[in-house]
Each structure stands twice: as structure tokens, then as C-alpha cells.
Specification:
This protein is α/β, with parallel strands linked by helices. It has 15 helices and nine strands.
Length: 333
């Protein structure tokens, strides 16, 4: 018998690290999941257009496939596909699953004009039945134990088709769906319309993951209250505050959680540069560091000062010196 005076223990929210094209690659996934809080990650999208892609393409986007589909800290990495041909999407999903992808995610939310012009991403929101066909064929093409998830927005030009999109997806055996609570036209402009996610939860037979304008633990708590969701996909907020996932998880357990200092963030940048130099051509190791600093400026004032020091650096050795607090040495190099 349940004690009426007993308050059930609240479970921490489930957190997924978003697939941000050109930003959240394997190196970033490795570093953010090591800090903790994430249930899984999703790769940058793999473009499917004319053929079944060779293995090397899947390994390039998801090098974690060589380690059981997990980041070094043990977080599963789903492989995301983007395309509009149901049969080709299904064939590529089958290959990704055979290579060991822990799950397949389908991108129907990318707002990039170049992607939409080639019939990929959010433009498919105009064709709900095509989305349904892609999801059905992908689901049928991979083993039953392999989760298939999708990511959508509220619509393309407006949210007038949202109920139609939900209706098309309600009969598909997806594992979960992430909904960015804005239309393609709204892009990333605030606010995110979290109240629409409650409608989705009532219409769909599987869990809905909330996405959009989740910058702090308080945002997640407010989104949970408005949407009724208990799972959340973190994107830009996770880059601005590297410990955001851990902080949200701690808040969900009613714990304060540790404060991630600027010096710790600076050490992450040092490691980020080193990992990029080890995995990629050293000539391209500097720009991702600058890109991350732009995000970090939102949360850490010190990042703005550091960015002004390093923005013209092109040599990775000079950048390493600057990140370790030796800007004069870097300038003299």
C-alpha cells in the first residue's frame, strides 16, 4: 500500500546531446559526454542521395562505430541520416546498423537552405506521408532491437500542418521523436513553443523529446512543466556551458552539482585542440577552437577576452601556447 504522505522520488530528466552540423563531431562528443549527464548522442547528419554509402563514410561521421558505437566514456552514439528516398534511406540505415550503430536517427528538421533545396531536412515537413514512408521503410530495414528515432520541427512555413505531421507519424513504430519547438521559418529565433509538445505527447504512442531554447537547468524545468516531457535534447546550451548536462542531471536529483570553472573550461579547450590535431590535419585544428570560444562567450566572460587574443592565430602551436596562458609567447612565435 502506498503511503499517501510519501513523495515519490523524482527521476532526473533524460538528456540527449544534439547533432549540430560542423560543431558536435566525435571530438566534441567525447569531451562533453566525459563530463556527464547524457543518455546518448546523435551524429552530424549523413547525407543520403544516390547510393548506399561506403563504410568509410559512416566511420568518418561516427568513428565511435569502431568502439561498439560508444564514446570513450560509454555513451551510445546514434547515427543520423538525412535524405528523401525511402528505399535509399532504408538501405543506408541497414548498413549503419550492420556496422554497429546503437540506433538510427532520421533528420526532418535541418533548416539549412542548401539542404532543403536538395530535398532534405525540414522541407520534408511539407510532405508528411513521405516522412511516414521513410520512417516505415527504415524501421523495417534494421533489426528489431535497433532503435529508430526521428527529429522534426513544428512545420515548415508555419505550424498549420503540425497535426497532419503528427497523424502521419502516429502509426509508425518509432522508438522516440525529438521535436524542435519552432518551424523552419522561425529558425532559431526565440521563443521555442514548448506548449505544442504537449499536443504531440497526446498524439503519439512513443516518447517525445523536447528541443529548443534549453540553456539552463531552470529552462529544462520550465519546459518540463509546460510540455510534460521528461527527455530533452541539448544543443547550443551544451556548447556554451560544457557541464550543462551534468548540472541538469544534478538539479533533477535535487542536488546543487559542482560549478564548472573557467579554468576547467580552458583545459577543455587545450584538450580539444590536442585531440583535433591528433585526428585531423593540423591545419584545420585551430578554427574549431575559435568556434567553440564563440559559444563559450555566452556563459564565460573570460572566453571573450581569450577569443580577442587568438582570433588571428592560424598556427596550432601558437594556439596551444595561447590557450595555456602564454599569449606573448604565441605572438612572438
Amino acid at each position: 500500500m502506498i503511503d499517501p504522505g510519501h513523495t515519490p522520488q523524482r527521476l532526473p530528466p533524460r538528456l540527449i546531446l544534439a547533432p549540430m552540423e560542423g560543431v558536435v563531431d566525435a571530438v566534441m562528443r567525447e569531451q562533453l559526454t566525459a563530463i556527464g549527464g547524457y543518455e546518448r548522442c546523435v551524429t552530424e547528419f549523413v547525407r543520403v542521395s544516390q547510393t548506399v554509402l561506403p563504410k568509410r563514410v559512416f566511420f568518418r561521421y561516427a568513428p565511435e562505430l569502431r568502439q561498439g558505437g560508444l564514446t570513450p566514456s560509454g555513451t551510445p552514439v546514434y547515427l543520423q541520416l538525412l535524405g528523401s528516398d525511402p528505399e535509399l534511406m532504408a538501405a543506408n540505415a541497414a548498413r549503419a546498423a550492420a556496422l554497429g550503430a546503437p540506433g538510427i536517427d532520421l533528420n526532418f528538421g535541418c533548416p539549412a537552405k542548401t539542404v532543403n533545396r536538395s530535398q532534405g531536412g525540414a522541407v520534408l515537413l511539407r510532405s508528411p506521408q513521405l516522412i511516414r514512408s521513410i520512417c516505415e521503410q527504415v524501421r523495417d530495414s534494421v533489426p528489431e532491437h535497433t532503435p529508430v528515432t526521428a527529429k522534426i520541427r513544428l512545420g515548415y512555413d508555419s505550424d498549420e500542418q503540425f497535426e497532419e505531421i503528427l497523424g502521419a507519424l502516429s502509426g509508425v513504430a518509432l522508438s522516440e521523436i525529438t521535436i524542435h519547438a519552432r518551424t523552419k521559418r522561425q529558425g532559431y529565433r526565440p521563443p521555442a513553443h514548448w506548449h505544442q509538445l504537449r499536443k504531440a505527447r497526446l498524439a503519439l504512442p512513443y516518447p517525445v523529446i523536447a528541443n529548443g531554447e534549453l540553456w539552463t537547468p531552470a529552462d529544462v524545468a520550465r519546459c518540463a512543466e509546460i510540455s510534460g516531457c521528461d527527455a530533452f535534447m541539448l544543443a547550443r546550451g551544451a556548447l556554451c556551458r560544457p557541464d550543462l548536462g551534468a548540472a541538469i542531471a544534478a538539479a533533477g536529483r535535487d542536488e546543487a552539482g559542482p560549478t564548472f570553472s573557467w579554468s576547467e573550461a580552458q583545459q577543455l579547450l587545450v584538450m580539444f585542440l590536442a585531440r583535433n590535431r591528433a585526428l585531423y590535419d593540423p591545419r584545420y585544428a585551430v578554427n574549431p577552437v575559435k568556434q567553440w570560444l564563440v559559444y563559450l562567450k555566452v556563459y564565460y566572460p573570460q572566453a571573450a577576452a581569450l577569443f580577442s587574443e587568438v582570433k588571428r592565430i592560424t598556427d596550432p602551436d601558437d594556439m596551444a601556447l595561447a590557450l595555456q596562458g602564454h599569449p606573448r609567447l604565441a605572438s612572438a612565435a
